[in-house]
Amino acid sequence: MVEPEVIHRVAGAALLGGVMVLFGAGYAIFHALAGLTGSRGMAGASILSYGLLCCCAVGFAALLQLADWWLALMGLLLIGYFVVPRFIWKLSLAVHGESSHINNETPGQATAKDMEASRHE
Amino acid sequence: MKIGKINYSELSTAQKLSVKYFTVAMVLFLAQLIFGLVAAWQFLAPDFLFEVLDFNVNRMVHINAMVVWMLYGFIGAIFWLVEDESGVPLVGAWLANATFYVLTVAVTIVVLVYLFVQSGPGDAWTLWLINEGREYIEAPRWADIGIVICMVAFFYNVAGTFVAGRWSGISGVLVLDLVALAGLYLAGMFYTTNLPMDQYWWWWVIHLWVEATWEVLVGCIMAWGLIKTLGARRRIVTTWLYVEVALMFGSGILGLGHHYFWIGTPEYWLGIGGFFSALEPVPLVAMVVHAVYDAGRHSFRSSNHPALAWLIAHAFGNFIGAGVFGFMQTLPQINMFTHGTQWSSSHGHLAFFGAYTTIIVAFIYLTIQRLRGDVWMSGDLHGGWRWKWSLGLLHVGMVGMSMALLIAGYEQSFIERAMGGSTWQAYFDGQTQPWFIQAMWWRMIFGVIMTVGLVLLLVDFVKIGAGDDRPIRAVPSEAIPEPEAQSEELAEAAAGS
Amino acid sequence: MSEPGIPTEWWASENFWRKCAIFVTGFMALVLVLLTFHTLTVIEAGSEAGRVPAYSVINHRIGYVMDDEKRRMMPVIGPKAPLFGEELTEAEAMALVDHGKLTVQARNCMNCHTILGNGAYYAPDLTKAWLDPGWGNEQARELLMTMFLKDPPTNARTFGTGRRMPNQELTDAEVRAVIAYLKWMSAIDTNGFPSGFKPLPQGPLTEAPQSQSGASHALGTSPPLAQPRRPSTKSPPPLASAPAAGLSMRGAT
Ligand code: HEM
Ligand code: HEM
Ligand SMILES: [Fe+2]
Question: What is the mean pLDDT of chain B?
């Protein structure tokens, strides 16, 4: 028999893991919104999400008593979940031919090409 | 084309085939839910249909109907886009039609045998004629072979059409993915005494389908849909499809290891499966980021509101159902206690619905718009409440059901797996906990809600756009560069200049 | 690759990502294929690795004990204890297990039960069914399993759920084969799944000089099960009463 306490930790870790991925998405979405709107609030929310993600990860590792390879894995995950959304954002811009920030089209020139540039997907 | 009227006869051969495939798909979807309800009811009233239609039969029909209707949905979608994407009429139209009927008759026979013969003596004949007894791919061997033949015919139609017309990045990925998808099915088509070996290959089919090839297939369908409905630029969509393929296959192929923790396979799968499957949410997050980017740059003046709503549901459903609910139990330390409990069921439901039901429904809305002569489907639809309510009911039902199953799963890992050490006694101890029983009731209630939602959805499919004479809101056609034969760069240059 | 007017960085170009997609897919598929070759040799029945036992393991007593080094539960192959008292050659054993597996597939067991944790959740996991304490003890087990499988509804111990196993109309040969299959299955090394499982009391797992030093460390940990009390059913199932009484905390429905 496994101690009840163990399964509470395991189940807690499962839920934390789920929440962690949610914060991962939050981090990514706010990062993207910050890029879109240039809002500092969004940028803050993004960093906050990532911070919470880290808290979840620490809790996750502690609850599961991860060690060695598994701790390294968590480290890699933290890096991955930090870097990838940023990279994807940069990629979104670059793929669309925007170098740094948005709204660099000339206003008042609503040609087909403009529409095209703003109407992908 | 007459706006608001059914223009079936004016569709091309391939598009007519799509309509047929979608119709059968929806019939099977309804059957799926009905058998799901019966199975769910048997949890609460085990004597219901005891030794008449036992749980295993109902459950088998439930999940097989799902797999088949989703494949029908994919085939329908591919037929819909193949002529447009290749620029030529379907190659082998006669064969394609015959295939549809052969496949549908075969599916019908398989289901009737499931229902009326159910099982057979423990010999190879049963596996050949009645039932293979392996979850998700129960279809008897004769049907397997028939399915493969139909797939080869389908492949000939699709690849042949692209060869006759032009290739594009999307069609290239699509065709390669179809090869992989059909090839993987072969991995599930043999018998072995060795159970670990059996399950090893069995997961090749199940996991490498839903977490790799199906995802990419959906990516292709979506890429085409985005170009057509929102006027997205082809180069961008194609690049993005490649990014998704790299991320999806990069994590999903070895993520297969999360099913090799406990089936007798070597210990290194614990690490490999844990690591790569923990990365599986990444492509899903990536998709969300990109969607936000696009949403921000695009005012969502879509020409088809229901389709767009279901596409958004797809992005979120895929992420939550597969990404979040999958991640929850993907590390072996956790999976040890959740493996084979209602946790899996919770994740399985939310993931299949969120990732695949949504996208197929979205696509069907696109085809109906065309079928009704490119009718208006943006805001202010006549009877627009129907698509909104069906969308709402289906989602409330599905989310509620998954939550109920999650609670049941928690109870089960606690009582049965951890405290009781997974004995028979422990199993039943878990099943009789009040929380568990209540969760089963909630699952039933939410199941009924879903079914109501589905009926409404089917009604909406029949009625939406009928009698409306407003034409579709135009997508700026300049934004839709057609691919040139062999050279997308040319097409892009032409469109960009 | 870039188009006029809209320059694209190389790392954001279609061409680059096409190559990436091909390379990543090819590489991962290659790794999977290599791992598959290795795994398939490891999980060969009776291979050196010892994870998946030879079919003739059904001639032996099978234990499930804590391995202190690996810190998880491991199946242990004990001394001779032939199934139904009949020692089989490897070929005969394989034929019997094979018939059992065919039967389990033909009767679609997996759509109620889980097998190695995979399948449906309507009925208990079968991974360690052979070792389940519900059978009472080693001596009663084969008989009780046979009687249960011959007529599951009558012998059901539903533990208050009302869930009975439908009669699968198994022939005698099928019943034996299924039991052989379950016995073989219980000896597969599943990396400790299910965790914390306590097998029923059995004889020694090591070849002791003379049976007196019997209780192996593995068995020392399992508390003796309650002895059969009175069956608690109204219509007493004649055959399964022993385990039912031994275990049921609630009456049968
Ligand atoms: C659309 C994509 C997905 C679908 C349709 C899907 C569906 C399913 C289904 C139906 C099962 C249960 C299989 C059974 O009957 O035993 C399952 C199991 C599982 N899935 Fe997924 N899944 C998806 C994506 C993911 C992802 C992205 C992850 C990881 C992050 C994941 C992790 C798992 C795990 C760990 C299990 C094993 C559960 C157990 O041990 O019982 N899945 N999946
Ligand atoms: C009316 C709604 C539904 C009800 C009442 C229902 C009920 C059930 C039941 C009772 C099971 C068997 C679970 C077990 O073995 O304990 C099941 C399994 C399953 N259902 Fe449903 N279902 C419904 C809708 C759906 C939908 C919409 C989908 C997917 C789109 C779906 C996908 C699945 C899958 C993948 C499994 C196998 C899960 C696993 O093995 O982990 N179901 N369902
Ligand atoms: Fe998987």
Answer: 91
Domains: count for chain C: 2
Confidence of residue B475 (pLDDT cuts 50, 70, 90): low
Ligand 2 in reach of B349 Cβ (< 6 A): yes
| Domain around B117 | 18-166
Which of B297-306, B350-359, C237-246 holds the top average pLDDT? B350-359
Same domain, C20 and C73: no
Q: Give me B119's structure tokens.
A: 């099982």
Contact C164, C233 (CB under 8 A): no
Picking from B181, B162, B182, the residue whose alpha carbon sits closest to that of residue B170 is B162
B244 lines ligand 1 (CB under 6 A): no
- C120 and C92 co-located in one domain: yes
The CB-based long-range contact list for C62-69 (8 Å cut-off, 24+ gap) reads: C62/C130, C62/C131, C62/C183, C62/C186, C62/C187, C63/C131, C63/C199, C63/C202, C63/C205, C63/C216, C63/C218, C63/C219, C64/C128, C64/C131, C64/C186, C64/C197, C64/C199, C64/C218, C65/C205, C65/C216, C65/C217, C65/C218, C66/C218, C66/C221
What is the pTM for the complete model shown?
0.90
The string of DSSP codes covering B154-211 is: HHHHHHHHHHHS---HHHHHHHHHHHHHHHHHHTTS---S-HHHHHHHHHHHHHHIII
B27 assigned to some structural domain: yes
CB contact under 8 A, A91 and C6: no
CA A38 – CA A31 distance, rounded (Å): 10
Test A1 with C12 for CB contact under 8 angstroms: no
Chain C residues in contact with A4 (beta carbon < 8 A): none
pLDDT at C9: 82
pLDDT of residue B58: 97
**Ligand 1 within 6 A of B281 CB?**
yes
Q: Where is pLDDT greater, at B460 or C209?
A: B460
**Residue C123 forms part of a structural domain:** yes
Cα(B210) to centroid of ligand 1, in Å?
8
CATH number at residue C167: 1.10.760.10
| B135 Cα distance to chain centroid | 17
Q: Of all residues in chain C, what percent carry a pLDDT higher than 90?
A: 66
> For ligand 1, is residue B177 a contact (CB within 6 Å)?
no
Q: Which atom of ligand 1 is nearest to the CA of B323?
A: 27
Q: Does B284 fall in a domain?
A: no
> Is C81 inside a domain boundary?
yes
In a domain, B187, yes or no: no
CA separation for the pair B208, B324 (Å, rounded): 19
Atom of ligand 2 nearest to the CA of B444: 5
If asked whether residues C145 and C73 sit together in one domain, one would say yes
**Does the structure show a pLDDT above 90 at C217?**
no
Residues C75 and C193 in one domain: yes
Contacts of A86 in chain C (CB under 8 A): none
Residues C96 and C216 in one domain: yes
Residue C69 in any domain: the answer is yes
| Mean local confidence (pLDDT), A5-21 | 90
pLDDT bin (cut points 50, 70, 90) of residue B362 is very high
- Which of C96, C108, C225 is best to mutate for the B interface (most B CBs within 10 A)? C108
Asked if A37 has any chain B CB less than 8 Å from its own CB, the reply is: yes
Q: Please tell me the distance between residue C126's alpha carbon and the centre of ligand 1 in angstroms.
A: 21
Q: Is B37 in the pocket of ligand 2 (CB under 6 A)?
A: yes
Structural domain that includes position C19: 10-41
User: How many residue pairs from chains A and C have C-beta atoms closer than 8 A?
Assistant: 19
In a domain, C3, yes or no: no
Domains of chain A by residue range: 4-118
Q: Judge if C77 and C168 occupy the same domain.
A: yes
| Chain C residues whose beta carbon lies within 8 Å of the beta carbon of residue B38 | none
- Give the distance (Å) from ligand 2 centre to CA of residue C105: 21
Q: Contact C51/B265, CB-based, under 8 Å?
A: yes
- Judge if C26 and C62 occupy the same domain: no
If one counts the domains in chain B, the total is 1
| Residue B280 falls inside a structural domain | no
Across A56-85, average pLDDT: 90
Residues C23, C60: one domain? Answer: no
